[in-house]
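Continued from yesterday's entry.
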Amino acid sequence: MRDCDVVIVNYNAGKLLIECVCSVFLAGAEKCIVVDNASRDGSIDDLEQATSNKNLLVIRNDVNLGFATACNLGIRESSASRVLFLNPDCTLADDALVRMVDVLCCSGTIGMVGGFLCNPDGSEQGGGRRAVPTPWRSFVRAMGLNRLAKRWPTLFFDFYLHKLPLPDRAIEVEAISGACMLVKREAVDDVGLWDEGYFLHCEDLDWCMRFRQHGWKILFVPDAKVVHQKGACSRSRPIFVEWHKHKGMMRFYRKFFRGQYPDVLMWLLAVGVWLRFGAVIAYYTVRRAFSSWR
């Protein structure tokens, strides 16, 4: 497991950060780089007190620079030929990193691999293996038309693949999750770093699109288990997270699909994105009001 570094972007992950870093070293990583986006929960201090591993590097940002920018800071501090980007609310199984590296190195055309993202109960999470959410696929999902996929699978295809049977070997997919993303340095040099125009969410889809545009394959490794406490770092600021999620969605659609779809569909998609954001805001507002009333 030489020549493989791990980059973790932390923002108020609490004790989960320590568990994550410990699992990284147990899994055999050579170096762990933690980029902290101005956390206020003491998680970095706790981490530095909990471990004295000389292969741990902590970068403290004075402000929250966003996920993509922090990832780029981390990879610039690494000289390894393979780099794993891992969320701080993830823990690697002991053999997960070895399996992902094995798959990444089995072909010169593979540029990125992802592991089996699962909930603490072992069930698979959505996003670990998926197709690209094109405007049409997003429209289908938003309108609930994906329920017709059994009858017309090509037309009403759902871009989340976790409900399909788990494959018995590594398979090529269109996209994986930025929560666990192992990349080859050679591919990054070819494709370029993360797009810092995204603050939070959709930057992983952007990178997957660009990798594939440059001819690099993306593989999902079903026997590389990664337990993901999804949303653990975003619960304290849900509206802030949702704003950047929806803003990132719009940037993604404009960047890759403008001109490929009729203007009316792109307009409807934009309306749908912001209506969804409004509904999410209303939900959190009502829930907060109800909690205060109780």
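--- second protein ---
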Amino acid sequence: MPDAPTPGSQNAPSDAASVVQRITASMEDYLKAVYRLEHDGTPVTTQRLADELRFSGPSVTNMVKRLAELRLLTHNPYHGVQLTQAGQQVALEVVRHHRLLELYLSEALGFDWDQVHAEAERLEHHVSEELEARMERVLGFPEFDPHGDPIPSRSGELPGRRDILLVDLEIGRIAEVARVSDRYPEHLRFLGEMGLKPGIVLRMLEKMPFGGPVRVAIEGTEHLVPLSVAETVRVGESG
């Protein structure tokens, strides 16, 4: 775990080491969840965090207070929960472990892409720096995981990519699948069966009204994708 500096401290190195030693797997889960929710572009309330983690409101409130005391996040009624620089550093390392594990499980061990998320969730808190480095080297220093999500570098940088939701792609437009949410195994199995994975090129043919499915063409074959599934797919428009 990298150092998590404490802003304003005169004894930053020792304070940082103390903070790192006090971070538990549960705390890492909270920080990772805040990181994920922050990317939705709306304030991360304690209620949203409770829904994300499926914990009770009081439990989330107590953990938020603990993390705020460690200066890993801030919380106020108007801006919600926000990661500090130190908190983001911790979250990015957990995300890096998770996504490297997903790719390693998929490419080296033959797990299906709908299985790797749950396995990575169990293992991500127990990855040493040596294991992390070896996985990265064996995989050829990858930038994206099996679902197309960017893998943070050791310094916390993310490869750039612009994408939009599949449901927002205009009718008639061609796009390459950029990434798919790894959180719904049944969606991944469904998408895998039709070949809709990162790197695949598709054309938007039709959007059914009243919350109906979207119709897309992949390599000349038409498919209906339920709206709930299409909302988990992001594409990079290519023409």
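Residues 85-107 form the longest helix (23 residues). Residues 1-14 have pLDDT under 50 and may be disordered. Will compare against the first tomorrow.
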